[in-house]
Design goal:
Length: about 350
Amino acid sequence: MSSLSLFYLGCQDPPLKSFEDARSALETAARAGALRYAEPVYREAESLLQNGLIEMARQKGRLGPFRNFKTADSLYHQSIQTADRAVQEAQARISELQTELKEEQLGFQTELGAWRDALDNTLMLNNAESYWSSADLALRTCERLILENEYIAAIEAVSEGRRWLVKLSQTFAEYDNDIATKIQIWRRWVNDTLEQSRISKGSAIIVDKSAHKLYLVQGGKLLHSFDCELGYNSARHKFFSGDGATPEGIYQITKTRPAGSKYHKALLINYPNEQDKSKFAENRARGIISRYARIGGLIEIHGDGGRGKDWTEGCVALTNKDMDRLMQYAAVGTPVTIVRRSDRWP
């Protein structure tokens, strides 16, 4: 055999088909989510492909008789097999995440619904409403991420939502503790107001914020009860001007407005009283409220109610018809007692 024949026998064609198959396998793996859900295996397949390219380039740089593409071809086939394994691992992980996510999402939806019911059956707690809204947004985010096949991020969104529910739970616990501490005080206020009305045989007004009721009593006995609406942040005592809370305390009517009120008719009460002023000063000194806060005033019982929600800046709102009726009995000096909850009335 001539030396020329030996030269041509030594030449090999580069394994271009193996290279294309390996590259295609990597693309398939990427589309299957291997970069996100089986990244170590995907990177291994990617490295094998790169090593194959380097080996093929090295062999191309050699003289024909000395070229040998077997190693490059082997690396490409290993890359294909590894890419296929990345697809399998990604699919298995996605299936696992989908199962986990389905349980997490269902459980979170149930919790969120239960907290919505709890919020709907209590006074407006601004912080609690904010926490619930943040948790609800996390659920919406989770649903969007599922549609985008971003399962890990979707689970993280549920976790974020649960963190908001923990804050919501803590707020409710503080609220319940506050009620348990103060219920005796509110009970005494109501009893004292009823006794005062009985002795004087005069009229008095009791507002039960939790029941959304205004009770008109005369001679210590119930004369009328009216549905009422409160401040948009009604679940606590008023701290400062602009907080949207309806105050809690023992007050009296200081001015009647049978005409000229912004809200049909109105009864102005003496908020802030001395107890309110003392508590406000204490809260500001302790840093509970800003030193720039103001205590506020102009708390009224007024008309234009009947909206089906708490909406005022802190006032008590009745329908115009009920306000007309109340005005027949109320006068300057009429006691007005506002409690968050009463377990003794009516």
